[in-house]
Amino acid sequence: MKPISDHLKEQLNILFVGYNPSIRSGETGHHYANPNNRFYRILVQAGLTPRLYKPQEDQDLLELGYGFTNIVARPSLTAAEITPEEYREGRIILKEKIQNIRPRVVCFVGKGVYEQYSGRRGMTWGSQPEPVVPGVVEYVCPSSSGLVRMKLEEMVAIYSGIKTFIGMELGNE
Description:
Blueprint: E1 14-18, H1 23-28, H2 39-45, E2 66-70, H3 84-101, E3 105-109, H4 111-118, E4 126-127, E5 137-141, H5 152-160, H6 163-166
Parallel strand pairs: 1-2, 1-3, 3-5
Antiparallel strand pairs: 4-5
């Protein structure tokens, strides 16, 4: 299965970084395409998008200044299938992407993604001190995977904190 395309441009408001694409995302070519993934619901409820987007509209979020990539490009059933070598290579590639496009916020969709990227452990949700790439806010959120047992409301509260760093208020309920 081929990797799915990144959606990137310079000076994004938010670059969302996942572990790797799901099998469903690999099949469809769209980010967060598994029907059990709560990503797009979280974004609208957190006030980060003006409406509920579908995975097939992922490229349209570039218009809002939101981009997508993963620390590992290869689709898999679960993140547990990712090898240490893939993480090592992905960490280098991801850092280069961040340095090149300079997003305001890099949102790591899962603590494990940030742990693999930064080499750090024990972080809290939200903005991280001492970013790997200076001048970029590194923000850690829970994975939106349906396998994560955190309540949707808790996830929404964490994601909504990103608005502080991009100066945004959409007025969503």
